[in-house]
């Protein structure tokens, strides 16, 4: 579903993505972990072309990323993205936030988009909030709206960049539960997170990045019990201690 080959990316003299080779199969869930600044967010952002790459290629479902125009808008709709900050439209209701993309980009009718939005809001457990505005919801609820909004476009793949790291502890679980559900439902997912419980429950593969490279990758079981590189051992030592 996602294929990155020989991908290179620089920010000025900083080589943030180095020789990235990554294939993610349909329905596969890949968790990306690694120290701050290792390139995890940049990796995600190149996959829906929020960042351009300097060399190499990226394909989604067998098609190279388009440069611009309608083809790029279509691609963005195929690749759902959920960030740490929810970025909901403050002056639109929860339902309107979810229907905006389908109506504008997918040309859905308002009635169809509303129906689908209510289904998705139900699925993420916040249908009762559909007529409220984002500021009236908790962080965990807003993040679940952001997930519903991405799903409303019927994406082929979902990218999550630290979706729970801005949330209070009691809200983390409700968001992770939605993500586990999605994973079990067969969604192709790339998830940057340090939530090891999620990785163990839902990931098919854990990918460890350091200094712009994929240093190692393995099943969660193998990776957490038997990390191979010193970088990964050192990193796991730090995060598992606190
Ligand atoms: N727009 C930009 N311009 C210049 N440098 C950038 C830009 N975005 C990221 N960087 C740099 O690229 C490197 C990788 O950043 P990235 O955000 O991908 O790391 P990360 O692994 O997501 O880190 P974190 O865990 O802190 O989110 C960092 O050194 C960062 O400072
Ligand atoms: Mg990041």
Automatic annotation (TrEMBL):
<dbReference type="GO" id="GO:0005886">
    <property type="term" value="C:plasma membrane"/>
</dbReference>
<dbReference type="InterPro" id="IPR027417">
    <property type="entry name" value="P-loop_NTPase"/>
</dbReference>
<keyword id="KW-0813">Transport</keyword>
<dbReference type="GO" id="GO:0016887">
    <property type="term" value="F:ATP hydrolysis activity"/>
</dbReference>
<keyword id="KW-0472">Membrane</keyword>
<dbReference type="InterPro" id="IPR017871">
    <property type="entry name" value="ABC_transporter-like_CS"/>
</dbReference>
<keyword id="KW-1003">Cell membrane</keyword>
<protein>
    <recommendedName>
        <fullName>ABC-type polar-amino-acid transporter</fullName>
        <ecNumber>7.4.2.1</ecNumber>
    </recommendedName>
</protein>
<dbReference type="Pfam" id="PF00005">
    <property type="entry name" value="ABC_tran"/>
</dbReference>
<keyword id="KW-0547">Nucleotide-binding</keyword>
<feature type="domain" description="ABC transporter">
    <location>
        <begin position="2"/>
        <end position="236"/>
    </location>
</feature>
<keyword id="KW-0029">Amino-acid transport</keyword>
<dbReference type="InterPro" id="IPR050086">
    <property type="entry name" value="MetN_ABC_transporter-like"/>
</dbReference>
<comment type="similarity">
    <text>Belongs to the ABC transporter superfamily.</text>
</comment>
<dbReference type="GO" id="GO:0005524">
    <property type="term" value="F:ATP binding"/>
</dbReference>
<dbReference type="InterPro" id="IPR030679">
    <property type="entry name" value="ABC_ATPase_HisP-typ"/>
</dbReference>
<dbReference type="InterPro" id="IPR003439">
    <property type="entry name" value="ABC_transporter-like_ATP-bd"/>
</dbReference>
<keyword id="KW-0067">ATP-binding</keyword>
<dbReference type="GO" id="GO:0015426">
    <property type="term" value="F:ATPase-coupled polar amino acid-transporter activity"/>
</dbReference>
<dbReference type="InterPro" id="IPR003593">
    <property type="entry name" value="AAA+_ATPase"/>
</dbReference>
